[in-house]
């Protein structure tokens, strides 16, 4: 099975940040989510509406995630 993903701007390149294979899945998922959010916001110049569309989540959910992770852009 092959999984592919893209958006209107292009596909995301994910930096694994030196995660070891011994890492826990929840922590890895959270780190990936944070990276994707920050990349979408960077690509859109901080426009949360467009970033949420790229990520496939609602603008409200993006706002929740930003607050949850303590991210400011």
From TrEMBL:
<dbReference type="Pfam" id="PF02954">
    <property type="entry name" value="HTH_8"/>
</dbReference>
<dbReference type="InterPro" id="IPR002197">
    <property type="entry name" value="HTH_Fis"/>
</dbReference>
<feature type="domain" description="DNA binding HTH">
    <location>
        <begin position="30"/>
        <end position="69"/>
    </location>
</feature>
<dbReference type="InterPro" id="IPR009057">
    <property type="entry name" value="Homeodomain-like_sf"/>
</dbReference>
<dbReference type="GO" id="GO:0043565">
    <property type="term" value="F:sequence-specific DNA binding"/>
</dbReference>
<protein>
    <recommendedName>
        <fullName>DNA binding HTH domain-containing protein</fullName>
    </recommendedName>
</protein>
<feature type="region of interest" description="Disordered">
    <location>
        <begin position="1"/>
        <end position="21"/>
    </location>
</feature>
């Amino acid at each position: 099975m092959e999984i592919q993903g893209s958006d209107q701007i292009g596909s995301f390149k994910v930096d694994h940040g030196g995660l070891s294979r011994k890492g826990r899945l929840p922590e890895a998922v959270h780190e990936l989510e944070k990276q994707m959010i920050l990349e979408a916001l960077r690509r859109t110049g901080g426009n949360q509406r467009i970033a949420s569309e790229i990520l496939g989540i609602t603008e409200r959910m993006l706002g929740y995630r930003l607050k949850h992770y303590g991210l400011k852009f």
